[in-house]
Amino acid sequence: MAQSRRARAHRVQVLKNWLDQRIDLAGMRQFVEHKVVPVHRHTVWYYFGGMTLFLFIVQVLTGILLLLYYQPSAEQAFESVQFIMTQVEFGWLIRSIHGWSANLLIATMMIHLFSVYFTRAYRKPRELTWISGVLLLGIMLLFGFSGYLLPWNELSYFATKVGTDLVAQLPVIGPTVGRILRGGDEVTGATLSRFYGIHVALLPLLTTGILGVHVFLVQKQGMSAPLDIERGGRPVRTMPFFPNFLLRDLVGWLSALAVLAALAAYSPWDLGSKADPFAAAPAGIQPEWYFVFMFQTLKYIPAKIVWIDGEILGVVVFSLVGLWLWLVPFLDHKAARGEDSPLFFWIGVSALAYILIFSILGYVAPGGK
Amino acid sequence: MAEAGSSRSDHCSGWRAWALQGGVKARGAIDSGAPRRWHAVLAMLMVSLLVRVEESKVWSQDLPKGNSCIECHRAIGDSRVTPPAEKFPQDIHLAKGILCQDCHGGDAATSEREGAMDPAKGFVGKPKRQAIPQLCGKCHSSADYMKKFNPTMRIDQVQQYFTSVHGRRLLAGDPKVATCISCHDVHRIRAVRDQQAWTYPAKVVDTCARCHADRQYLRGYKIATDVVDQYKASIHYETLTKKGDLSAPTCNVCHGNHGATPPNVDSVANVCGTCHSLTAEMFAKSPHQEAFASIGLAPCVTCHGNHDVMKTTDTMVGTDSKAVCVNCHDSDSEGYKKAAQIRASLDRLREEVQRATAILDRAEHAGMEVSQAKFELTGATDVLLKARAAVHQFDPTVVKTLTEEGILVASQANAKGVKALEDLRFRHRGLWISVVVILVAISGLVLKIKEIDRRGPRRGIKKL
Q: Whole-angstrom Cα distance, residue A168 to residue A147?
């Protein structure tokens, strides 16, 4: 018994040595052993980044499983999803988890973004982490937009129609981008093929690269402590990344998994009826919840503001806000100097209130214009 | 525009004066002295002004230029002679290039009244009512002429009309009966399928109602005037107007249009059978065909009514008070027993379909995908429809064979609904088990974290 244990320990040691000679395991071990995470009253927000990463992994795994049966054509897309939900063993669960996880991912990502924003974690030297993070948010929104069409049901068809019409209204590049996205002037099977390609090839490729950079930067630079704590100059309590923080992160992952399981079982992702391009748009059509505040805003904007088309103006303003958000580390000079920046704080509070109010209005007061 | 208007006024000055001095009834008074002429000129100017204002409101469509009939009838401003010109812009004949003189004769190129309305030039004026069918038939009964406009159009309308009650009475000298213009309008005749046409299917009943619901007008004819109200309460009218199904029957579908005649007792089944062909055929082969004929009962309408045909229900069959079978069959008769058997078969299938529908709806509302089962259930619904039609064979065995087939389909769909609900319960159980497993794992992790925190001191204090 003891002999076999010794033999096993020897084999493990041989493997370690083999790897050590090739990928410097000792260096990595040392890095992990020395990596610490600050402990303060805002530490809880750190876990949302990890939860987002976990949900993304869930998306990749369930997405791969769905790919095994999904048929990306206008004739077969709906039927193939129907097949997944009724005939494939646990297909209903896979699709439901994929749908719910996508939504939870956007939610945790938004929480992560606002927590980073309000703790000014984007300040020097973490500008690139923020830049890559905002890019990832944009990519996740594109994931949501492109994935929404894939079941080819009535709701997704018309939501895509509205969404691509908005893109096509952008000045100068809009019409061309709109045509490229749709593969023509209308949402057709060609649009479905493109969205499928974007959803399963282009966006995963971009995500892999940018997520790699983002995670590398987080590991390289470590977690940022809030400005007031850092400015205090006092030593900050810390905990080891491994295993203390990682185990806590795991609790967050498992909690997200429990919520996913509950949602998937009690509110399965439904399929609706097959898209009919010749049918009238269903009443009360709305995009996914994370686009509702923008959609609702466009409803309130008058048709014409001076001589500019209201919707075009709305789309342009949202694009500029997105650009501003992306570049915020370079605009908030005070935070970069380690000073308070109340202007950016109040902009953040207003943006959060705006998103909440307009999202709620989108559900309780769908009219507007 | 102003020039055209004044030129038209000049052309028609004589006409206006004629109209102002008494119109049709006072033709001879046109040259009755200078003072009156001055008054006439003054009045004419005022009328011209009014006409000019009215023109811009009423005659919005292009009318042929230089047609003295239209120009003068528009310019006169007398409500007794303007309607034809007022209505004509919407007439299909104008759209096809057929103008006033093509029906009324005369010379539309002449602006002088005498020349334009010269009987020597074929002017017939307003035709007598009895002459209207022949007048329309001049073109509409000519294959050579009509094929220029519509090669598929029938040309036997006038011939058919004279076989109708309307046509026969017109020939007998009754001027009140309907002629072409009673149903098609006059001077604003629209294409039959034009939604504004009096002949548009949804409007036909109101067209017929102008006479057939007018008690005063029909006094002395011994015709019921409540048929329109009865029809408007029927399933046929509801289908036609509320569902917009233009194939649903209206007056002319059963009575004929140009050859309008009430169907006789022995031809009712043929009339209903033009749409309900399957049931009519079944009835014809059933024992009821002979039985009805022997006692002078009309098929179809005896059970379903005629103008007030209601939506059929299964309660019409059977032995309870709402069933029509008990109107003839005594409780100890063979027919009575058969009626009860047929009703029982229908009830069983209907209940099975309802049971399957309810369970599939429940599963669907709970988020289960049961669209395939719902599609399969439509097979049972189709069989139920067939079984209801098969009632007209009055053979319990035939109905039962069909309903058994439907019950099998419905019970299979029901089984899929039951399985979907079982799956749902399985999923819920699976959820609770997985949640418990996850919670246990979380608890284990929390304990481990506490142990690690306790055992190994935190890396401690660090200056960031």
A: 19
